[in-house]
Amino acid sequence: MRAVVQHGTGGPDVLQVEDRPEPTREPGEVLVRTEAIAVPFYETQLRSGLIPAGPPSIFGHEAAGIVLEADDPNLRGRRVVTMSYTGGAYAEVVAASQYTLVPGDLTPEVAVAAAVPASVALTLMTAADVKEGETVLVEAASGAIGGYLARLAERKGARVVTTAGKGKADIDHNDPDWRQKVPEGIDVVFESIGGPRAAELTPKLAPFGRILAYGMLSGDFPAFPVAGLLARGLTLIGFGGPDAYGKRIAAVRAEALGLVADGTLTPVLDRTYPLADVAAAHARVESREGVGKVVLVP
Ligand SMILES: NC(=O)c1ccc[n+]([C@@H]2O[C@H](COP(=O)([O-])OP(=O)(O)OC[C@H]3O[C@@H](n4cnc5c(N)ncnc54)[C@H](OP(=O)(O)O)[C@@H]3O)[C@@H](O)[C@H]2O)c1
Predict the structure, then answer these.
(1) What is the dihedral of CA 137, 141, 143, 148, to 10 degrees?
(2) 218 CA distance to ligand 1 middle (Å)
(3) Which of 18, 29, 66, 199 has most Cβ atoms within 10 angstroms of its Cβ?
(4) What is the pLDDT of residues 57-81, one digit of tens each?
């Protein structure tokens, strides 16, 4: 089969398409012929070496496709989305233990664009316990998770303030002083940008506000000195990790896809690329010129 293998860390060209043996599945796993593969932003940080990763292997985590083999023979021929923390998704065939049936007539591109980010957003909303009438700051709302968070918070009856690249949201987060433009009285911050200046947000939070730290889009985790949190009675929730929130995220994947199927959440697709153009797909994500998901088609 054709698969994308990472040769060291660096620019998009470290990802190369090669012939590799098809994987075999362990009990509990599904073997899937892929139809669409997501390229989330964090994978560009894994490829560049900003996020440390294991030895070279088949790259990628999120795929949609048709089941070839499974413990349950009734699953054969059904469309699923798969998620694998250990890689293997940028390939024509993937074996994965996390899989979810795709409901209705969702295309594989739409299903893979939505499955992981929408389930992360649902789990973040539960962890934040957003209430009607609260004010919520969603950073990077032009991204998949940010976009779903904004929609889910609005559905809860919250007032939502968003950041993104210029012209895409309420506040342009490329302005280094953007945090000064955030209104006061924020109850919940969905913090994905990170970096040493994140603490400038603490005076913008209402007493007893919550900060959900779940990303490092800027390349650094956020720094929140305890003194600033203590002064306002704030709660800082570290959100992530396969052994912590990972299981809760997987548990709501079917619910997340259901919200897409019934029209509550609308995935935005940017561009699709053939698997052979994986370097161009990564360059597109890093360019930040588009809005929506970049998807590889094998
Ligand atoms: N904790 C968890 O369980 C978990 C799970 C999955 C993902 N994540 C994290 O969630 C974050 C968002 O992921 P996603 O899949 O929603 O992303 P995505 O759909 O690939 O979108 C990328 C987003 O990143 C923004 N961005 C890129 N570089 C930036 C920078 N230097 N400063 C500010 N914004 C920047 C883009 O905004 P513009 O282009 O508009 O500027 C865009 O909104 C990532 O940090 C990812 O690692 C966490």
Answers:
(1) 80
(2) 9
(3) 29
(4) 899 999 999 999 999 999 999 999 9
pLDDT-derived band at 56, boundaries 50, 70, 90 = low
DSSP conformational letter for 13: G
Name the residue of 119, 214, 217 to mutate for ligand 1: max ligand atoms within 8 A of Cβ: 217
| pLDDT for position 153 | 98
State the pLDDT confidence band at 53, using cuts at 50, 70 and 90: confident
Q: Are residues 53 and 7 in the same domain?
A: yes
Alpha helices by DSSP H, the chain: 41-48, 108-128, 144-155, 226-232, 246-251, 253-261, 278-287
> Is the domain of 39 the same as that of 132?
no
- Same domain flag for 164 and 218: yes
Q: How far is the CA of 73 from the centre of ligand 1 (A)?
A: 37
Q: Can you give the length of the chain in residues?
A: 298
Looking at the predicted structure, is the pLDDT value of residue 54 above 90?
A: no
Identity at 107, one-letter amino acid code: T
Q: Which residues line ligand 1 (CB under 6 A)?
A: 40-42, 117, 120, 140, 142-146, 164-165, 168, 173, 192-193, 214-218, 239-240, 245, 288
Which range marks the domain in which residue 167 is found? 118-242
